[in-house]
Amino acid sequence: MKKIFFILIISAACFASVSAQQVIVYPAEDPVFSISFPEDWIVNLDEESISATPSDSSISFNIIALDAADIDSAIAYADLFLSDMFQDLELDDPISEEYNGLNFLSISGSGTDESGTEIYVDVELISDNEGQYFMLFYFGTPDSETAHDQEIQFIDESITKVK
Predict the structure, then answer these.
(1) pLDDT value of residue 130
(2) Of 86, 46, 39, which is closest to residue 62 (Cα–Cα)?
(3) CB neighbours of residue 53 within 10 Å
(4) Per-residue pLDDT at 13
(5) Domains and CATH numbers, the chain
(6) Which of the listed ranges 42-51, 82-91, 147-156 does the model predict with the highest average pLDDT?
(7) Does the pLDDT value for residue 87 go beyond 90?
């Protein structure tokens, strides 16, 4: 019984660490999806993008609307964008999935930033069924990825279609 009680307390503590949230609908003019960030994250929103970081700034989390006619155009944009930001980028095979009413094409990999620091990168091309495309990407060191794993999972799982 003590073991079960201990597990419940630990589970509650972990859940509480990401249960407080900032909910954003995006884009503001004609919302397609909502996304939630932990309350202690610093979130900046403008007409074209969302950017967010945890309080230690070790992860950069970004979403931008793409001017893409189809998924191939969105992939080409993501490839060009990432190759400008990172060197020696090696990406895994893309994974397609649908959840919360949206289509996702997820691509993960690693490379280095301009200072030579190893960086983990995750890109998700998000689309609704009406031809709108968005690029969600976050990056940080492998250690920062591990440190913020629960928060990143919380954010990813919060993305929900609003239309």
Answers:
(1) 83
(2) 46
(3) 19
(4) 38
(5) 21-161 (3.40.1000.10)
(6) 147-156
(7) yes
The count of other CB atoms within 10 Å of the CB of residue 52 is: 22
Count of C-beta atoms within a 10 Å radius of residue 60: 16
DSSP string, 72-112: HHHHHHHHHHHHHH-EEEEEPPPEEEEETTEEEEEEEEEEE
d(CA 41, CA 51): 10
Neighbours of 103 (CB within 10 A): 16
Residue-wise pLDDT for 45-72, tens only, equals: 987 899 999 999 999 999 999 989 899 9
| Tokens, residue 96 | 């397609």
List of residues 6+ apart from 97 with CB closer than 8 A: 103, 104, 106
User: How wide is the angle at C-alpha 26 spanned by C-alphas 24 and 32, nearest 5°?
Assistant: 125
Residue with tokens 């003590």: 2
pLDDT digits (tens, 9 = 90+) for 89-143: 999 999 999 999 999 999 999 999 999 999 999 999 999 888 899 999 999 999 9
Rounded to whole angstroms, the Cα distance separating 137 from 121 reads 7
CA 124 to chain centre: 7
